[in-house]
Design brief:
The protein has five helices and six strands, in the order αβαβαβββαβα. It has 159 residues and is an alpha/beta fold.
């Protein structure tokens, strides 16, 4: 047996359909498009969910609930976790919290909650802080700075 004598297995290779090549081909005249109607015309494209004129499923089912387009979920971290993960005097930012594995990156950023006790002094720079967490951080000698959208909202209006 030589390479030039190898053949494909029977039925392994099939000729493509050649539309519009006469009645003998089985795909002549209307070329598999039937008679008249939208699908017989050139340029036809059925939109997603079309059910042949029947009321589509997405319109038959009741609509419930509401999803705000302005909603940005936040990842939450408690002060007791910051106590365990960071050294005294550290600057705690959103990036450092994510790098330490305390939270996953979220569109809204990081929010610090007030669970647990805090003895270390931190400079916390995040998107949101609860009043209880802020009190604990400042009581330990640290400071809180809001960054991003929350910082813009907290600034007093200039007159």
């Amino acid at each position: 047996m030589e390479l030039n004598s190898l053949k494909h297995a029977p039925g392994a290779r099939k000729n493509r359909k050649r539309y519009g090549r006469g009645p003998g081909s089985g795909h002549g005249k209307t070329s598999g498009r039937g008679h008249k109607g939208a699908r017989a015309r050139s340029g036809y494209s059925r939109h997603f969910g079309f059910e042949g004129g029947q009321m589509p499923l997405h319109r038959r089912l009741p609509k419930r609930g509401f999803t705000s387009l302005d909603r940005f979920p936040m990842a939450v971290v408690n002060v007791d976790l910051l106590e365990k993960a960071f050294e005294d005097g550290a600057e705690v930012t959103s990036e450092s919290i994510i790098k330490a594995g305390l939270a996953k990156a979220c569109k809204g950023g990081i929010k610090v909650l007030g669970r647990g006790d805090l003895a270390k002094k931190f400079t916390v720079k995040v998107q949101a802080v609860t009043p209880g967490a802020r009190a604990k951080i400042e009581a330990a000698g640290g400071s809180v700075e809001l960054i991003g959208f929350a910082a813009e909202q907290a600034k007093p209006a200039e007159e």
